[in-house]
Amino acid sequence: MDEFETTTSRSLDVADIRHHLKTELLGTGNHIVYAPTVDSTNSLAMKLARDGSEEGVVVLTDNQTAGKGRQGRRWVDVAGLNVLSSTVLRPLFPPYQLVMIASLAVVDTIADICNIQATIKWPNDILIGEHKVAGILIETSHDQMGQLVAIMGIGVNANGHISQFIAEQPSLQQADAELLKRATTLEESSGHVVNREMFIARLLYQIETRYLALQREAQAYVNGPISRLIREQWRNQLSTLGRTIQVHQGSKLLSGVAEDVNDQGELLLRSHSGECISITWGDIE
């Protein structure tokens, strides 16, 4: 007998997403591109952006065959259970702020929909307790006119159980299976199935609210109160700060206390020798 009750997968209802949507830009009109299966929502969104796609286009799918994680890792999902989205943006502000607004949007949406307090593990993982429930991948490029485009990719383990993910993917590499064992889903954490359409609509609203505020601030050529407020909100949600951590950067290993983040979102590590090291990338343990 199975240790878990299998959650039934189903296709996204795009009309229902539009029904719940309260945005001005993201996903409005014909700005939702849905495909039941894609290799990667980020790859498709980037192709659309380079070809001149309008800002605010959101690519959604039920299943990725080559989903992207950080540092070239694979994003593992089971068809019809998760939230997999990539949004085309043309920010006038530094791209590192996209990580901040995406992370805060996921945390706020989980609180709104599931009444659960999630936290942010630097730089871009969302945790419930010590278990990963979502990840963010920001990719940037330039379109045919030479203008900056950014893809905000968000993957959320919405429904099902992690044991179900592993059972349905017998070809998983050992490393991927071990990472999955440290993950969770919103259904596991909340005890009920999550309406993915409502979640996506709320997520896009949360992203848009801060994104448009930063765009307006950038258009005024001011590094002002909105940027500072968002950085402080993001900093306050970081579960990494104050902990003794190890940072893996390829074959290099750094250790110390995660003391703070700077204005650009870089992690400030106080090494055991007392040196303050600015960390721009790496895996945190």
TrEMBL record:
InterPro entries: aa-tRNA-synth_II/BPL/LPL, Biotin_CoA_COase_ligase, BPL_LPL_catalytic, Transcriptional_repressor_C. One of its GO terms (cellular component) is cytoplasm. It holds the Pfam family BPL_LplA_LipB. One of its GO terms (molecular function) is biotin--[biotin carboxyl-carrier protein] ligase activity. The keyword Ligase applies. The keyword Thylakoid does not apply. Residues 15-215 form the BPL/LPL catalytic domain. Keywords: Ligase. This is BPL/LPL catalytic domain-containing protein.
